[in-house]
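Example (one chain per record):
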Amino acid sequence: DDTRRDTVVTALEMATETRNQNHDPVRDESCLTLQTESPWRCDLASYVLANHITSSPLFVRMDLGDPTIARPYIGIGYSAAEFAAAVRTGLLAASGGSSIESPSVPPSVFAPACGNHVALFSSDVYFNTTIGDGASSQSLNDAMGTANNGTQVVLVDTFPPTLSTCSN
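Predicted structure:
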């Protein structure tokens, strides 16, 4: 019942159609098979991650307050807190393995709430942000090492942050 949602869906449907017209996009085939009525969902990394990844060991790093990713949503009336809550819900769902296709290897997730758009290896923001409750806090590097050793990592903060130590 949210008109903002309708605006987002319309934009996503148009973007999917544009991709189809301009090039042959690579999409998850299992998603396309199940989403015959809403194929635009298969263009959303968050949707595919939460519902259609069944065997790839993935590690996701997403800031709940990422201003670059949030900008279009805020532009149509969502608040930063609403955006962060939706991202948080999606990441927890993906990491919990509660998807349409029941993944055998749910992704590991590192999601601080520092309000940064972070590219791979972009200085202190990348390396020195931690999530945890003091003694058990982990940096992204720590978390990636843990995941690489075969243990799933789920470090997802709240918004505003209660677990993140942010390095700006």
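Caption: DSSP finds seven helices and six strands in the chain.
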